[in-house]
What we know:
- By secondary structure, the protein is α+β, with helices and mostly antiparallel strands.
- The strands form 8 sheets. The protein has a 9-stranded mixed β-sheet with strand order 1-2-11-8-13-6-5-3-4.
- Helix 9 crosses helix 10 (284-292) and helix 14 packs across helix 16 (478-489).
- The relative contact order is 0.09.
Amino acid sequence: MVSMVRSEDDVLHGKDNGNNFKEIKCKANMVGSNGMSWINEIPICPTFYPTMEEFEDPLSYLEKIAPAASKFGICKIVSPISTSVPAGVVLMKEKSGFKFTTRVQPLKVAKWDSDDLTKYYMSGRKYSFREYEKIANRLFAHKFSTSANLPAKFVEQEFWHEITSGKTEFVEYACDVEGSAFSKSANDPLGNSKWNLKDISRLNKSVLRLLETSIPGVSDPMLYIGMLFSMFAWHVEDHFLYSINYHHCGASKTWYGVPGHAAYDFENVVQKYVYDGEILMHEGVDATFNLLIGKTTMFPPEILSEHEVPVYKAVQEPGEFVITFPQAYHAGFSHGFNCGEAVNFALADWFPFGATACKRYENLNRQQILPHEQLLCKEAMLLANNRSSSGNRTEWCVKVAFVRLIRLQHHYCWFLKKQEADIFYSSGHNSNVLCGVCNHWCYMAFGICQSSMHFVCLNHAMKCECGGMPTIYVREDISEMEAVARTFEQEQGVLDECLKKLPVLLEEYNDYIPYSDFISKKNQNHILTSTYENQIHASEKKAHNEKSYILYSSNEEKADDNSDCEPFMVKRQCRTFSEKIIADEDMKSYILFSSNEEKADENSDCEPFMVKRQCRTFSEKIIADEDMGYRDSNRKLPETECQKLENSMESTFGSTPRGSSNIGQNAVSKVTDVQSNQIKGGSLKVRLKIKGPSLPVELT
């Protein structure tokens, strides 16, 4: 293997591009045997020690340290108070019957080509907190012949040796477990403080307080229960949010972090030196971003350091918090059995990062979990009405982001009006509308394609696929928002900063006037009632015919004119799969599952890293096609043939056990219901209700 690497300098500095991937892979696989000197060269991130007074207000304190700490991507905060009720007591006594399942993590560095990809699988086993602790401690003792804590650097060396050349095949990690280990006891000082992760996302300065519905893992915390070498692979938080992680108990964790300003450099290095080009499905760094979302890419941070990407390290002990900042890639592993808890939050300076995240999701046609436009508009309007505004850095970020959004929306509307589009106020538009092209959530304005009757964002309204001009609808309070934006523009530097980031849309027009009226005069108060009904009907038809789907929350009415289909109810649901869906139109029940998974097998290889928190907060209602589940076959046959077929079906399914019949040349597993009806003109309609794998049905 050594002979394949022509020179270490060539590998580290990207020479001989044709073989870089193979060479760096060889280098990565040799980490365990060639020494770990790089471990001592990774700088430590800053650690902060707030006073009791500073600790009173978490977000004010984080707002204070963010300008300096964010340059490292991660930082550590040592709490001046501790919990009086251990996490084990909370999870075993306060949460009666608490159990969780785990993911199986292979301990290896993958080649990341078409033949070697890292995948995590659900173990299918349920553990209590104490059962998992016993297994984890047994693994630790077997590995090191001791139960004592070991030096962090020694464990770090052993981890990278094991992952690159060791004999341990896999470990189990309980991640994304809904719940909290903070005690409800009135005598627990940390549990009753504002640093309790159950409350932090809803504090006054957190943008996520404006969400109308909670999202597990984002606005509500989740637990992470690990064992020796269980890992969290390189990833960035959803929508590039902040995160806060508290270490409740157990062995240490090692963290690695890359600051947000180096995120694109990080992705370029991963694309060039970690991933094989044949597995990338998109162009540029978006292709890498798309794979990193899977949270299974683990490689030594040495690769980043050698290619001048800044990376920092933290060793987190019980009672300590770790903060990750917007767009900061991070990874890490456990030194033994431990229990942590994490949740997202967002200070107002997050909005520019959130806008970038939305754009990247749209480029990949991925579902967004946060209604970014709505959160920004709500925050800006609240800020405008706040007479005690301090004018600090985070408020300035809100003003710049809001002015940019208003200006951009006006640019789009002015351009569309120039193209003779009809633009109306809509009394029916009070929530978010999903663009059928890029999955952007439209809050301020949207279009309806007059050909397909699908919703489109203003960006795609300008280039509608049908070649026509969509009808545009804007919020009735758009004038109030524009007035607030004009007020913000009066503050020094706001407009200049905003204009730097606006795309050039109107360079060929010299008569554009900002904030000019664009509403069509013939019907300014256009109501969307009939249009909504037609559009929803068209969307259902498209979903049935084209294997697409529409998602509704169980808390909302399906086809009501004022239905609020909120994006934050659909966190990460099957974004990376091409979905196949079962539909029963008569019963109006819908089931969602991945084409890569078996439908009802408890031990199926469900890619857990791809379906984090999918649809946990509500029951799904989804429209789909006939490809699986129910199948209808309408065939024109002579009446005699129809009668023969009907008799054959009756005899076959009336006399044999369900689940054991074959039809024609193809076996159908577990037939649970058969209906056959004679139709005029010699047509026989056969309706089969099928459970199990998808098989074609051939009637002879």
